[in-house]
Write a structure and sequence with these properties.
By secondary structure, the chain is α+β, with helices and mostly antiparallel strands. The protein has helices at residues 21-26, 103-128; strands at 6-16, 39-49, 54-61, 68-78, 86-96. It holds the Pfam family PRELI.
Length: 129
């Protein structure tokens, strides 16, 4: 946007389904056939403001929307301590519904998977800096 200087991007990402095979087999009931898909689709939106030196990102899952809601919000901004540093804040939300007794199992798996991703990003940032 030339009036605000904000660069907006919206894109769809395809990721490999990482749900363990045991959960795919346990959920062999007809209504959970969707867990057996090979790929998962995510929508990502980002706003880069070069004037304010910050970027915000929002990501949510497009796959399994009838059973689960997964979303993540990240903000990168100039540190108040040092303008050459970046403050990074990330929030994630997971909610599984309609899976009966498996709701909590699937939520725990998703939470564990997302925590591993956060650790990987943190380690990459430390190595890069």
């Amino acid at each position: 946007d030339s009036s605000t200087g904000i660069i907006y991007r919206r894109r769809i990402a395809t990721c490999q389904n990482v749900i363990p095979e045991i959960l795919r087999k346990v959920t062999a009931f007809r209504k959970f056939y969707v867990l057996k898909v090979p790929d998962i689709y995510l929508e990502e939106e980002s706003w880069l403001n070069m004037q304010k030196r910050n970027m915000a990102m929002k990501t949510h899952c497009l796959t399994w929307t009838q059973y689960a809601s997964l979303s993540e919000e990240s903000v990168f901004r100039e540190s108040l301590e040092n303008p050459n540093w970046t403050d990074f804040t990330q929030k994630g939300r997971i909610s599984v519904t309609g899976a009966g007794l498996l709701n909590c199992v699937l939520e725990a798996f998703a939470q564990s998977f997302l925590k591993q991703g956060v650790k990987k990003v943190s380690n990459l940032l430390r190595e890069f800096l």
